Amino acid sequence: MIIVQVKEGENIERALKKFKRKFEKTGVVRELRGRREFRKPSVIRREQKNKAIYVQQLRLNEE
Description:
mainly alpha
């Protein structure tokens, strides 16, 4: 359960923004999207490996 403390006189949009930020950090939406279909652990590892290689190449090209 997410609780957002709202100070007196605080704008409702600001409180909503805090709520959205906290909700995003929980990772619920990402997990739900990931559970739409089953992906084999080997496929997940392969994607992570390819992403790591890509990021490493970007960093090397940046230098």
